[in-house]
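Design job #97: recover the sequence.
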């Protein structure tokens, strides 16, 4: 069972932003930039292109909705998108508010307090 499945089942906590029957969005715990969000299918699959075409399209559609809210809640030049999966083998889309090229790089991280995570998740969720 992946760490994201544990978040989905409520076994471990997350800073949740949105969820529907098939997808969940929550803040990345080790963000590249403030507002770094993960969009995850509830059905655990390893790789993005293991998904059916329909599941892929639905994931992109849900990510679109989340990105729109993110763009409104977190000041940035644009929202970037990345799919990696080398650390957690459960499909997820990274949505990252970008102000500079370094924000898309997974080497440079920002530190946020619990209060900042909670406030961020609430402000993005309020934009839906
Ligand atoms: P990757 O699999 O390389 O796309 O990276 C996995 C991402 O998941 C990293 O950016 C981690 O910071 C993030 N991550 C790992 N565990 C958690 C967690 N419990 N809650 C939120 N994000 C997480």
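Job complete. Output follows.
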């Amino acid at each position: 069972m992946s760490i994201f499945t544990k978040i989905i089942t409520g076994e471990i906590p997350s800073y949740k932003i949105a969820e529907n029957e098939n997808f969940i969005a929550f803040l990345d715990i080790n963000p590249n930039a403030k507002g770094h969000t993960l969009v995850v299918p509830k059905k655990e699959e390893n790789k993005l292109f293991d998904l059916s075409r329909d599941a892929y399209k639905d994931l992109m559609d849900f990510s679109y909705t989340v990105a729109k809210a993110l763009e409104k809640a977190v000041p940035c030049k644009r929202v970037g998108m990345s799919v990696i999966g080398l650390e957690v083998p459960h499909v997820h889309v990274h949505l990252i508010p970008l102000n500079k090229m370094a924000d898309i790089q997974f080497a440079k991280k920002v530190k946020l307090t619990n209060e900042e995570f909670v406030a961020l998740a609430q402000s993005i969720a309020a934009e839906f």
